[in-house]
Amino acid sequence: MRGNWLSPFVCLLVSLSLASEFTNGTDTMWQGQTITQPNTITSSGGRFELGFFSPGNNSKYYLGIWHKVLTQRIVWVANREAPFSCDSSNLTINSDGQLLISNGRLSYEATNITTRIKRKTFATLLDSGNLVLQDPISLEILWQSFDYPTDTILPGMNLGHDTINGNFWSLVSWRSQDDPAPGSFSLRLNSDGILVVHNRSKPYWHDTSLDFESYGGVYYNSFNTYGYISWNSFDTSGTMQMVLDAYGELKIQSWSEDDKSWDALESSKCSH
Ligand SMILES: *[C@@H]1O[C@H](CO)[C@@H](O)[C@H](O)[C@H]1NC(C)=O
Ligand SMILES: *[C@@H]1O[C@H](CO)[C@@H](O)[C@H](O)[C@H]1NC(C)=O
Ligand SMILES: *[C@@H]1O[C@H](CO)[C@@H](O)[C@H](O)[C@H]1NC(C)=O
Ligand SMILES: *[C@@H]1O[C@H](CO)[C@@H](O)[C@H](O)[C@H]1NC(C)=O
Predict the structure, then answer these.
(1) Which ligand places an atom closest to the C-alpha of 86?
(2) What is the pLDDT of residues 87-97, one digit of tens each?
(3) What per-residue confidence (pLDDT) applies to 210?
(4) 199 close to ligand 4 (CB < 6 Angstrom)
């Protein structure tokens, strides 16, 4: 072949253009690819979608995960404390392997892999609604959105403490229906295994009667190291969810195909 000296350059160009090509609707993104509105990642079974959204009227853009078919309700927000004001914000994986939201001027790391070395990762949105960042060789899960809940528990998530692995799972409400910024209400599991909602630092209500086992929750407890409810056996069809709303109400909901809406199986509020 002529012009052999060009080859590395050509290869670089080819690999760059291959790398930056993101097929809308696939479930995985790689380093070098970019996702910009209206492109999204869709889980392989089509249940969940990840992309940018702008709730209500505010002109702020967030990266989130929502039910793709069931009313598109947002279940997770990556940058609730750092909204972007521009609809051309990009999602990429940076050279450290972290998910990065940027708009050219500002950037925000949406993940928190604890590593000091630069590494390759890829991100996949699973059909459970979990976004996982993995090492492409070992397939080790380095970060997952299920460990950083927003205001919603999906089947497969936990609530409580696991000090061995350094996980603390809790919910923090949206500030209002149109504002995913952290609101005043939080849901935590206390050391007695009881779900407690706080209004900022003040206990708001707790529910000793909530029979979470009937919703598939299993309580794991070991003195001083962990105490958490795992919703692993919670209806794996993915049509149930537990939501702490902006008014401090905790709702366990299941999808009703007849009404095309989320019906409350149980709703707990303020039994001071
Ligand atoms: C959006 O804003 C307009 C005018 O500011 C208002 O009329 C409309 O009701 C708002 N919509 C929502 C969903 O808040
Ligand atoms: C977003 O990514 C696209 C494609 O890679 C690029 O052309 C554009 O400049 C990026 N926009 C911003 C705001 O970084
Ligand atoms: C990331 O993890 C480090 C160490 O675990 C922690 O100190 C830091 O606050 C975390 N940052 C975010 C944004 O979660
Ligand atoms: C939550 O606490 C704030 C004060 O920190 C108070 O103003 C507000 O009324 C409380 N909300 C409810 C629903 O009790």
Answers:
(1) 2
(2) 789 999 999 99
(3) 77
(4) yes
Q: Judge if the beta carbon of residue 94 lies within 6 A of ligand 4.
A: no
Q: Which amino acid does the sequence have at 123?
A: A
Task: Choose the weakest-confidence range: 134-148, 199-213, 222-236.
Answer: 222-236
Determine if ligand 1 sits within 6 Å of the CB of residue 56: yes
| pLDDT of residue 17 exceeding 50 | no
Q: Which is the closest atom of ligand 2 to the Cα of 102?
A: 14
How many angstroms separate the alpha carbon of residue 56 from the centre of ligand 1? 8
Does residue 103's CB lie within 6 angstroms of at least one atom of ligand 4? no
Q: How far, in Å, from the CA of 268 to the mean position of ligand 4?
A: 17
Q: Which ligand has its closest atom nearest to the C-alpha of 115?
A: 3
Measured from the Cα of 178, ligand 1's closest atom is: 14
Give the mean pLDDT of 186-208. Answer: 90
For residue 11, is pLDDT > 70?
no
Give tens-digit pLDDT for 210-228: 778 888 888 999 888 889 9
Find out whether the beta carbon of 269 lies less than 6 Å from any atom of ligand 4: no
Question: Which residues make Cβ contacts (< 8 Å) with residue 245, sequence separation at least 6?
Answer: 151, 173, 174, 251
Q: What is the pLDDT of residue 9?
A: 43
* Residue 251 Cα to chain centre, angstroms: 18
